Amino acid sequence: MTATREALEPSPRMWARWPRWLHADALWPTHTALVHGDLHPATCCSPTTRA
């Protein structure tokens, strides 16, 4: 968080909110899922290939 604070220079008000948000367990989901949002030809597997 220190490196983030130095890089982004959030306002004191925003800086005070971040730790409260991070530690508020009720705001975080109770499950996890693998999500891959970077879909482009170099990372997609296909049963066929085209030359």
The gyration radius over C-alpha positions equals 19 Å
- Structural class comes to mainly alpha
Percent of residues in helices comes to: 25-40%
Share in β-strands: under 5%
Q: How confident is the prediction overall: mean pLDDT?
A: 80
Q: How many helix segments?
A: 2
Find the count of extended strands (DSSP E, 2+ residues). Answer: 0
**Rough outline:** elongated
Number of domains: 1
Head-to-tail CA distance between termini: 47 Å
List the helices and strands in order: HH
Low-confidence stretches: none
Main sheet specs:
none
Describe what this molecule looks like in 3D.
The protein is elongated and about 55 Å long. It has 51 residues and is mostly helical. The N and C termini lie far apart (47 Å). It has helices at residues 2-8, 12-23. It is 37% helix and 0% strand. The mean pLDDT is 80. It has one domain. The protein contains two helices and no strands.
